[in-house]
Amino acid sequence: MTTTAFTPRPYQLDAIEALRKGWAAGQNRVAVVLPTGAGKTVVFSHLAHQMLEGLGHRRVLVIAHREELIEQAASKLLAVDPMLRVGIVKAQRDDHAEADVIVASVQTLAVARRREAIKDIGLIIVDECHHAAARTYMEVLKHFGAWDGVPVAGFTATMTRTDGGLAEVWQDVVMRLDILDMISDGYLCDVRGKSITVDTLDLNRVKTRGGDLVDGQLGKELEDSGAIDAIAKAYAELAADRAGVVFTPTVATAQSAAAALTAVGITAAPVWGAMGKDERRSTLARYASGDVQVLTNCMVLTEGFDAPHTSCIVVARPTKSPGLYVQMVGRGLRPAPGKRDALLLDVMGAASRHKLASMVDLTEREVGEAEEGKSLRQVAEEHVASEKRRALAARVTTEEINLFGQSAIRWLRTEDGTWFIRLTGSMFLFLVRDPGTRMYRMRRYSQSDGVHPPKDDIARPLPEALAWLEQQAKVLAPGAFVAREASWRRGAASAKQVGLCRRLGIKVPRGSTSGEVADLIDQDRVGRVLGQLILPAAA
To answer: What's the pTM value of the predicted model, to 2 decimals?
Structure first.
């Protein structure tokens, strides 16, 4: 990568452009969904910088809900433009009078006199905007004109919230970037999943409230089942050389997990919401320096926590919420020097009536089921390859289907979409499409001498290529063999044909004719041959 943390990447510029287009289309409350690690703070810092010039005397308001997010936003804004006047409004701090950009705590803005003191807001940015359906956010946003034409940009890694209401706030999600795109482009690490199965952990005893497992009951079940010791043992066996973060449902389980890890030789420390600020800062600093290998936490590191060297995530807080799961796992996906991938350890019971989030929920794409030990990218690529085999044939245009279907010659197509004419038991002709075009080249295959192009190997439009190949077929093979309406094709399939299909693993529909079974055999054989060939490059 040639970009720095503060130089916008291409997709970050795309996000800004998508927001501007959304506003231009008359939707003033729009959001973008970027995976954890995509640099949403960098995006909205550049957005604020670009928009200020057109706001005149008006200013930008950035709303966040945690101290770490507020400090992070102020820092990034100054990194993007050191000349910006950035003010912070939270608790005792009230630096807004001369600021171009105000970064404010939603809790502070919920106090009427504090928000009423802030004037001339021309752009609102909401960090972690999946919280925006909450009453305090709604009051603050309405006060600053979010329903009166002031443009609003929301940023989040997950546009889900169990108590709903987000559609009342956000009119449109103008851009979504999938985690698999980030992994493929090298902006995030691939993630490999393993299960920590605890047979004595019975999640069926844990009730659901608000769409997810009840924290207190879940914590008690983890403690009573011996799952905490199992987590420590699994970490020592699978991730002894990795810096990691363990997510737990309660403060007590975070503290127990830290103690259990320490007992097996892994230096660990817990953090939680009510912990003193100085103590928490000290613990996080020790983790950043490597003095602490593992942080255990009671759900305080799901947002605003940035430690790229983290290469193991333990989900000891099983959840039914894909959004929460994405936030937890996302903490381990940022790239860092020497980091090859992220290891995800999912704590599971022997069986559960609950539908729990898993690694495949990190992406919005259909990727099938997660497989033990395989990375998300591997699972996705295997699923895509499987779907591609079925879908490529359907990508042939109506024109192509009509051309082949109207021909008097017996054209067939392999599973991966290659059209061919079978000439003899050891020879066939086929078409190859030039990549990125609608032009085709002709090829002949024989068992004795492989693939050969014609002497005038030029790419032709499909009708010309088809006509040329059909002429060759008529010269090289008996008409009855290549003709679509040959009389032999209408007879019943022979026992020899059916027996060959059985040996090849080809399913023969009941009542198939001799011609239909011959087609199935030819499609299988030619598909196998082409699958093993490295075709010569076009001249």
So the answer is: 0.64
